Amino acid sequence: xxxxxxxxxxxxxxxxxxxxxxxxxxxxxxxxxxxxxxxxxxxxxxxxxxxxxxxxxxxxxxxxxxxxxxxxxxxxxxxxxxxxxxxxxxxxxxxxxxxxxxxxxxxxxxxxxxxxxxxxxxxxxxxxxxxxxxxxxxxxxxxxxxxxxxxxxxxxxxxxxxxxxxxxxxxxxxxxxxxxxxxxxxxxxxxxxxxxxxxxxxxxxxxxxxxxxxxx
Length: 216
Fold this sequence. Notes:
9 helices, alpha/beta, eight-stranded parallel beta sheet, TIM Barrel, 36% helix
């Protein structure tokens, strides 16, 4: 897949890169635009491996980090990796889950979100965030990004340029773009490579690949 993405017909962007070029209306019209994103979730070691492979292929993607998950982003090895991502042109964002953590108390969720964002910013630049799926998704009351949809808080007041679901969708609609979104959530196989090779110019392909499902 990385070899395919290195071909000249593709223009690979992380989430913030897509938002910034869309805002300026500078997406190249003759390329297949690929947004590449990874939710680290509970697999920072696999994420490290994937980021190194991408770096060798001159591809930079977005890695969304949890601050309330099973790993400590401030541990020596992971914080060192986060800084490596920043130096090598990758994007680091917050994978927030505060509405779920706050048991759907919106006021408390916003308070926790601001704390988590500030914590991650102690070791990385963060300009986009991404809603994490609730651990028991089948019985969730609201998706975590409802704190933004209901304007309990805003991207602007948190010095953010976007949310990985809401803002990308907003630009796709505003610019009347065609987009295909593929995610391997839950370990479900998706035909990533087939979608790439069959894509046409002026098409947006948005890939969410979870490192936890991919091991050497």
